[in-house]
């Protein structure tokens, strides 16, 4: 999956519109994922899953920051997320299928907060970007 | 047999009651063909699918999207009897249309995104979770007669 020049422009545009809401979107993405796909909670047995959980907010912020970082270095996502990729391979070992679930929920969050931003073309670009991020994070698994 | 709580049935009905089946169906199918272009393989006879604009404006895409979502509405009316309701449709998709069931899952997720864009904050996490369950069950029923 290759990101075209217009994909990159579209993705940067989305994150620029999201701006400072990124952290909030990260938390909501996790909330939606845990709700719709309860099996994803198995990676967070120590988390308070209640509404407004500080842990979910904190982790959502981290997830959002990584996506923003990837978008800001969209020409070299593998380089930008290299340490995170190591972490996922050696320590976290989140099954690859879950990155699709997270990506889907992020799209739902963007759609529900910014329907006008998520045109079909932007939707396609953002979906490709999220796939690319997932691929990078699981690249060193074996 | 899938169990649906009263709350889930309410979340499904309240969303579905406000859906414009023609518009929503057209948009969902168009986005499927745009976001996952390999799905165009089933629609060689649809004419111009060469760009997002062409796809969105294509009358065959619109008509087929409406057909698909109308059928989805039948599923919602028969939640307790889905496998039987979709039995013939499942055979059709396997034997005549040769559609990989993965495509049902892709379309289901696209539908969720279209609903999220339409209903914005009313498409709560609880609502999404119920509809993810619904699209999953529909996809499963459609794949049930595959052999």
Quick overview of this protein structure:
Chain A is built from seven helices and no strands.
Account of the protein in words:
The complex is a heterodimer of chains A (142) and B (147). Chain A is mainly alpha-helical. Chain A has one domain (5-138): Globins (Globin-like), CATH 1.10.490.10. Chain A is built from 7 helices and no strands. Chain A has helices spanning 5-18, 22-36, 54-72, 77-80, 82-92, 97-113, 120-138. The longest helix of chain A has 19 residues, at 54-72. Chain B is mainly alpha-helical and 147 residues long. Chain B has one domain (6-143): Globins (Globin-like). Chain B is built from 8 helices and no strands. Chain B has helices spanning 6-16, 21-35, 52-57, 59-77, 82-85, 87-96, 102-119, 125-143. The longest helix of chain B has 19 residues, at 59-77. The mean pLDDT of chain B is 96. At the A-B interface, α2, α6 and α7 of A face α2, α3, α7 and α8 of B.
Detail the topology: elements first, then pairings.
The complex is a heterodimer of chains A (142) and B (147).
Chain A: H1 5-18, H2 22-36, H3 54-72, H4 77-80, H5 82-92, H6 97-113, H7 120-138
Chain B: H1 6-16, H2 21-35, H3 52-57, H4 59-77, H5 82-85, H6 87-96, H7 102-119, H8 125-143
Number of spatially distinct domains of chain A:
1
Main beta sheet of chain A, described? Answer: none
**What is the H/E string of chain A?**
HHHHHHH
CATH topology of chain A: Globin-like
Mean pLDDT of chain A: 96
Mean pLDDT of chain B: 96
Continuous helix count of chain A: 7
Q: How far do the termini of chain A sit from each other?
A: 20 Å
Task: Identify the CATH homologous superfamily of chain A.
Answer: Globins
The CATH class assignment of chain A is: Mainly Alpha
* Number of DSSP strand runs of chain B: 0
Helix/strand-derived category of chain A reads mainly alpha
Question: Based on the structure, what is the oligomeric state of the protein chains?
Answer: heterodimer
- The number of distinct structural domains of chain B comes to 1
> Percent range for helical residues of chain B?
55-70%
- Work out the radius of gyration of chain B: 15 Å
The CATH superfamily name of chain B is Globins
What share of residues are in beta strands of chain B?
under 5%
Name given to the CATH architecture of chain A: Orthogonal Bundle
Question: What is the N-to-C order of secondary-structure elements of chain B (H for helix, E for strand)?
Answer: HHHHHHHH
């Amino acid at each position: 999956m290759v990101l075209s020049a217009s994909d990159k422009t579209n993705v940067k545009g989305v994150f620029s519109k999201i701006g400072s809401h990124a952290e909030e979107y990260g938390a909501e993405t996790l909330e939606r994922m845990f709700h719709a796909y309860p099996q994803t909670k198995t990676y967070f047995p120590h988390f308070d899953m209640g509404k407004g959980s500080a842990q979910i907010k904190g982790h959502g912020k981290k997830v959002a920051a990584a996506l923003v970082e990837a978008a800001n270095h969209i020409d070299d996502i593998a380089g930008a997320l290299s340490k995170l990729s190591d972490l996922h391979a050696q320590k976290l070992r989140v099954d690859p299928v879950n990155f699709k679930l997270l990506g889907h929920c992020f799209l739902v969050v963007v759609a529900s907060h910014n329907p006008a931003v998520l045109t079909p073309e932007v939707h396609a670009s953002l979906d490709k970007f999220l796939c690319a991020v997932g691929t990078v994070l699981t690249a060193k698994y074996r | 047999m899938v169990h649906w709580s009263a709350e889930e049935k309410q979340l499904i009905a309240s969303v579905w009651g406000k859906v414009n089946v023609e518009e929503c169906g057209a948009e969902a199918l168009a986005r499927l063909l745009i976001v996952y272009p390999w799905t165009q393989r089933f629609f060689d006879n649809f004419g111009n699918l060469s760009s997002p604009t062409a796809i969105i404006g294509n009358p065959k895409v619109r008509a087929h999207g409406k057909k698909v979502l109308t059928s989805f509405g039948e599923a919602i009316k028969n939640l307790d009897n889905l496998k039987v309701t979709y039995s013939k449709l499942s055979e059709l998709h396997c034997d005549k249309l040769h559609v990989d069931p993965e495509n049902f899952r892709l379309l289901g997720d696209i539908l969720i995104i279209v609903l999220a864009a339409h209903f914005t904050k009313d498409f709560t996490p609880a609502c999404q979770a119920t509809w993810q369950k619904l699209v999953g069950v529909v996809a499963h029923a459609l794949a049930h007669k595959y052999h």
